[in-house]
Amino acid sequence: xxxxxxxxxxxxxxxxxxxxxxxxxxxxxxxxxxxxxxxxxxxxxxxxxxxxxxxxxxxxxxxxxxxxxxxxxxxxxxxxxxxxxxxxxxxxxxxxxxxxxxxxxxxxxxxxxxxxxxxxxxxxxxxxxxxxxxxxxxxxxxxxxxxxxxxxxxxxxxxxxxxxxxxxxxxxxxxxxxxxxxxxxxxxxxxxxxxxxxxxxxxxxxxxxxxxxxxxxxxxxxxxxxxxxxxxxxxxxxxxxxxxxxxxxxxxxxxxxxxxxxxxxxxxxxxxxxxxxxxxxxxxxxxxxxxxxxxxxxxxxxxxxxxxxxxxxxxxxxxxxxxxxxxxxxxxxxxxxxxxxxxxxxxxxxxxxxxxxxxxxxxxxxxxxxxxxxxxxxxxxxxxxxxxxxxxxxxxxxxxxxxxxxxxxxxxxxxxxxxxxxxxxxxxxxxxxxxxxxxxxxxxxxxxxxxxxxxxxxxxxxxxxxxxxxxxxxxxxxxxxxxxxxxxxxxxxxxxxxxxxxxxxxxxxxxxxxxxxxxxxxxxxxx
Length: 527
Prior knowledge:
- By secondary structure, this protein is mostly beta strands.
- The chain is elongated.
- It holds the Pfam family GSDH.
């Protein structure tokens, strides 16, 4: 075979996203509550790292396998303890980052929950802001009595009580949910206003077949807002006077927002008090909605709308004011169901992730970051993957994130890392000689940006069966078809406009096609 050359020059610049600085001002009450939870003052800072350089990480804790966990919440009483719900067992478990998972449940209500449907069981939990003085747990579950959606309070005698009697239950609010077992919602959260919020799905089946999404006479397909304080006296709860539908004839006065399909998880930003709602989609889109603090009455459009598009045009109301999502994604790449998270407000990663809302997909584990940029606009980007089947996120007393996974039953610490800045580059790839089943190739990496590159790794995929056997002026490894070539220290710096060269020797059989794409420190050089 005669010697011949391929010359392939690829030129590209991976552009960094530039995000507007976010206002750090928030309601004073939210700031005070945030500080009271033990989360430091620096957590109000917004990350300056562009989202396209943020990478999420996770580490499984040494907690024993959990029984289909559905929620994880910090108690917020200064003890550092966290609450975890187990769906089918009906158990509430205590976890502390230092001591691990308590052996015995804090509460067991497995005798009264429905578990026939995959989405039924013990679904959500919250501890009140004044837990240290008025200890109690608030839980949401599907009842064994016809699958009724149930919100209950379990009073406690002391914050450090080892177990709570199941017969101490005080049922606060129920909603019939007998036709189908899916779309139960189940998030329970205290807002920055001290009121209790609870989410419910549209009643189940598909396509809102029960016509609940736009029906204000039912609590299905809504998020409700309740006053559960002592000021209600003997009442199980009071309806706050400023709830949006208090004066609307025939409407349920408990409703805070509606037009939702299955708002499985929602959360409040502890700094600005805004509300993030992840609504599980059906046809094409999963969506995340965002409401400013104290803004009730939003209609998110289901079943007329799903994500950014119409779902059922025949059930759209031309006079309705639908609130569009802050972010949505489709069902490609294995995506199936959104798991809403929370805004990161911890100290450890504040400089790179502060102010970023984190959410993931239950099936694909694809994970995204979302940041408001002002004027109702949002910056969004994929930030990597988490373990499969994440069902809930929670923040510990210092604002650091945890996630629980369903059938894997894992408890994971969530962290972040900064990816290297983008590199502006060109790569020349030339086959210098070829014989029998071998060849040599030289590569020239040029920095076409304005800033020097301090340390470089070039990666590419061989489209044939090429296998690198030797290299010079770079440390080269190969995993399958992917080759990585890193500097040797002495040649690590590439000044603006400068170049570095290295070479490889490899074997092949059949054709010897050149690589189609090169990446320098993760940035694609494409021409």
